[in-house]
Protein backbone atom coordinates (compact mmCIF):
# COMPACT_ATOMS: atom_id res chain seq x y z
CA UNK A 1 0.00 0.00 0.00
CA UNK A 2 1.11 3.54 -0.67
CA UNK A 3 -0.32 6.97 -0.04
CA UNK A 4 -0.51 9.59 -2.75
CA UNK A 5 2.35 11.35 -0.98
CA UNK A 6 4.51 8.19 -1.11
CA UNK A 7 3.77 7.90 -4.81
CA UNK A 8 4.62 11.51 -5.46
CA UNK A 9 7.96 11.06 -3.78
CA UNK A 10 8.66 7.84 -5.70
CA UNK A 11 7.68 9.49 -8.95
CA UNK A 12 9.92 12.49 -8.33
CA UNK A 13 12.87 10.20 -7.63
CA UNK A 14 12.23 8.16 -10.76
CA UNK A 15 11.81 11.20 -13.02
CA UNK A 16 15.49 11.99 -13.34
CA UNK A 17 15.20 14.52 -16.15
CA UNK A 18 12.20 16.12 -14.38
CA UNK A 19 10.03 16.29 -17.49
CA UNK A 20 6.94 15.19 -15.55
CA UNK A 21 6.96 11.70 -17.06
CA UNK A 22 8.73 8.50 -16.12
CA UNK A 23 10.13 6.70 -19.14
CA UNK A 24 11.06 3.06 -19.61
CA UNK A 25 14.70 4.06 -19.39
CA UNK A 26 14.16 5.87 -16.09
CA UNK A 27 12.42 2.81 -14.67
CA UNK A 28 15.40 0.66 -15.63
CA UNK A 29 17.83 3.16 -14.11
CA UNK A 30 16.25 2.69 -10.65
CA UNK A 31 15.67 -1.04 -10.14
CA UNK A 32 14.89 -0.64 -6.43
CA UNK A 33 12.20 1.99 -7.01
CA UNK A 34 10.93 0.09 -10.02
CA UNK A 35 10.42 -2.99 -7.83
CA UNK A 36 8.22 -0.94 -5.50
CA UNK A 37 6.22 0.44 -8.43
CA UNK A 38 5.76 -3.07 -9.85
CA UNK A 39 4.51 -4.33 -6.53
CA UNK A 40 2.13 -1.40 -5.97
CA UNK A 41 0.67 -1.70 -9.48
CA UNK A 42 0.66 -5.52 -9.69
CA UNK A 43 2.73 -5.51 -12.86
CA UNK A 44 5.69 -7.77 -13.53
CA UNK A 45 7.86 -5.47 -15.64
CA UNK A 46 8.27 -1.83 -16.64
CA UNK A 47 7.09 -2.79 -20.13
CA UNK A 48 3.87 -4.20 -18.74
CA UNK A 49 3.31 -1.11 -16.60
CA UNK A 50 3.78 1.22 -19.56
CA UNK A 51 1.72 -0.80 -22.00
CA UNK A 52 -1.17 -1.09 -19.56
CA UNK A 53 -1.15 2.35 -18.00
CA UNK A 54 1.14 4.72 -19.89
CA UNK A 55 -1.24 6.05 -22.47
CA UNK A 56 1.04 8.45 -24.28
CA UNK A 57 2.90 7.46 -27.42
CA UNK A 58 6.37 7.98 -26.06
CA UNK A 59 6.36 4.98 -23.77
CA UNK A 60 6.32 6.87 -20.51
CA UNK A 61 3.91 7.32 -17.64
CA UNK A 62 2.67 10.47 -15.91
CA UNK A 63 1.98 10.80 -12.20
CA UNK A 64 -1.77 10.75 -12.80
CA UNK A 65 -1.47 7.53 -14.81
CA UNK A 66 0.70 5.96 -12.13
CA UNK A 67 -1.77 6.94 -9.43
CA UNK A 68 -4.59 5.41 -11.48
CA UNK A 69 -2.60 2.19 -11.87
CA UNK A 70 -2.03 1.92 -8.11
CA UNK A 71 -5.68 2.71 -7.46
CA UNK A 72 -6.79 -0.03 -9.85
CA UNK A 73 -4.53 -2.49 -8.04
CA UNK A 74 -6.28 -1.46 -4.79
CA UNK A 75 -2.99 -0.32 -3.29
CA UNK A 76 -3.71 3.38 -2.85
CA UNK A 77 -4.27 4.24 0.78
CA UNK A 78 -5.65 7.55 1.93
CA1 LIG B 1 11.43 11.76 -17.15
Automatic annotation (TrEMBL):
Query: What lineage does the source organism belong to?
Result: Bacteria, Bacillati, Cyanobacteriota, Cyanophyceae, Gomontiellales
Cross-referenced InterPro entries? EF-hand-dom_pair, EF_Hand_1_Ca_BS, EF_hand_dom
UniProt cross-references to SUPFAM superfamilies, sorted A to Z: EF-hand
Protein name, as recorded: EF-hand domain-containing protein
Supply the Gene3D superfamilies for this chain: EF-hand
Q: Name one Pfam family in it.
A: EF-hand_7
Q: Which GO terms describe its molecular function?
A: calcium ion binding
Task: Give the top-rank taxon of the lineage listed in the UniProt record for this protein.
Answer: Bacteria
Q: Where is the EF-hand domain?
A: 2-37
Amino acid sequence: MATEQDLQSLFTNLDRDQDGKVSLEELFLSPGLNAIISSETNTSSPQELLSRYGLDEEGSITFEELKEAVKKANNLSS
